[in-house]
Design goal:
The complex is a heterodimer.
Chain A lengths: L2 H35 L11 H6 L6 H20 L3 H14 L1 H4 L9 H9 L14 H32 L11 H13 L5 H6 L3 H16 L8 H21 L5 H11 L5 H17 L5
Helix pairs in contact in A: 1-3, 1-7, 1-12, 3-4, 4-6, 6-7, 6-12, 7-10, 11-12
Chain B lengths: L4 H20 L24 E10 L2 E4 L10 H16 L4 H15 L6 E8 L11 E8 L1
Antiparallel strand pairs in B: 1-2, 1-3, 3-4
The chains are: A mainly alpha, B alpha+beta.
């Protein structure tokens, strides 16, 4: 397969993988919902006005459960019936389902990437992706996802530049202990003791400056992955490790986003030849006469 | 129809940039299109940072209430909620309601703590983990 073909091929698998992942995501949200439901009813603080409009109080299990089931039903239907309107509905529902989970008291961004993913895939149906130039629209899908990381990376560069130009005494990412202070402060705010293995790793001060700058460069340039398959795979691996790092070192739980990165950006085409070979292999096995 | 994906990308990017503009002016993001301005500087980049903490009076001692995850709250939840109501109480925003909510919240976390005092703590993040680390406490109110 050439680049154009394999880009479309990969998306066709992503389309189905997103349905399966969506079902898993809904299940996780149900558990999160159950946990927050045990909080006293009085301490519900919706972050957005639109959220207060949809859920004036914390939703009941019947209401929230029905939304989850309806969304699950749409995900399953769209496995068999590819439809733009249903895709749009899935996007809206997932955005609403995220309200009681991530937007209570403040806004958490660990599910935003997933919502953007369903938004970017509204017009991409596998059955219609059969023209030579269709790979371009898949590139926009990747671009929509990766732009979020690039914006985060670029804003770090701007943050460094701003503090250097203004000559503030703030710590920037170029500071020797930037990553360490970042970790210690997040652990302090959560009132958790920093594990010793993390402190040991932070003893390599110069190493962390290099790693930090390298990571910001990759993060800022991750949008380029939309145009090059090999780089996209590199970006996928980087983002996975990056989310793993923030989970342990900054206590930022991007568990679902981390899995979503794998599902959406995975180079499924590398499995294609394997699949063909195995089929032939199986075929030969079946025709082979027993030795005894 | 797939060609419209291009416009979805443009919409997504434009709304993200609009979110950036709105948030910089003290507004909220255009959900779900966030500006992605995250950690532009490390957390704890300022000379001093502040947080609200609850203390409990036990036998004439004032004990700082620690965050321990429970089946319904994790440490981040506890910090987030304490800071949310702490800030509102200090600003005297719907004071009675927010004091009541803070107490309801604490009752669901540690019902045995009944003599609560709200403090604002100031500390230098750069001193974290060092012997020179100090917390500067300011009392806000008894709850």
């Amino acid at each position: 397969m050439n680049y154009k073909e394999l880009t479309v091929y990969n998306y066709k698998i992503v389309y189905y993988a997103l349905r399966i992942f969506g079902l898993y995501w809904l299940l996780i949200q149900y558990f999160n919902f159950k946990k927050i439901s045990s909080w006293p009813k009085e301490i519900y603080e919706p972050f957005l006005d639109v959220q207060r409009f949809i859920f004036p109080s914390y939703p009941s299990e019947i209401l929230y459960g029905s939304m989850l089931l309806f969304c699950a039903l749409l995900l399953i239907i769209t496995i068999f019936l590819q439809n733009y309107i249903l895709n749009f509905l899935i996007f809206v529902l997932i955005a609403i389902i995220n309200f009681p989970i991530s937007l209570n008291f403040s806004v958490g961004h660990h599910n935003h990437l997933i919502i953007v993913g369903y938004f970017m895939s509204i017009f991409l149906l596998p059955k219609n992706l059969n023209k030579e130039n269709d790979y371009k629209w898949v590139q926009y899908f990747y671009l929509g996802l990766l732009a979020t990381y690039s914006l985060a990376g670029i804003s770090k560069f701007l943050g460094i530049a701003k503090n250097l130009v203004k000559g503030t005494d703030k710590i920037t990412w170029l500071h020797k202990n930037a990553a360490k202070v970042n970790t210690l402060d997040n652990y302090w705010m959560a009132d958790i003791k920093v594990p010793n293995w993390i402190l040991t790793l932070y003893q390599y001060e110069n190493f962390w400056v290099i790693i930090t700058v390298f990571a910001i460069i990759i993060q800022a340039s991750s949008f380029l992955g939309a145009f090059n398959r090999k780089y996209l795979t590199c970006v996928m691996i980087f983002l996975y490790i990056f989310h793993w790092y923030t989970g342990f070192f900054v206590l930022a739980d991007f568990q679902n986003a981390k899995n979503f990165v794998l599902i959406a950006l995975f180079p499924y085409h590398i499995l294609y030849p394997l699949f063909i070979k195995n089929k032939l292999f199986n075929h030969q096995l079946l025709n082979k006469k027993p030795d005894f | 129809m797939q060609k419209y994906t291009k416009y979805l990308f443009i919409i997504s990017l434009l709304l993200s940039l609009t979110s950036l503009y709105v948030i910089e002016r003290g507004g909220k993001e255009i959900y779900p299109f966030y500006s992605w301005k995250l950690f532009t500087s490390p957390s704890g980049n300022e000379k001093f940072e502040e947080q609200y903490r609850l203390y409990n009076v036990e036998n004439n001692d004032t004990i700082r209430i620690s965050y321990q995850s429970t089946p319904i709250y994790d440490e981040n939840n506890l910090g987030l909620i304490t800071n949310f109501y702490g800030k509102k109480i200090e600003k005297k925003e719907n004071l009675e309601i927010n004091i009541r909510k803070m107490k309801i919240f604490m009752k669901s976390y540690k019902p045995e703590y009944t003599k609560l005092i709200l403090y604002k703590e100031k500390y230098s993040p750069q001193d974290l983990g060092k012997p020179s680390f100090k917390i500067y406490k300011t009392i806000i109110t008894n709850l």
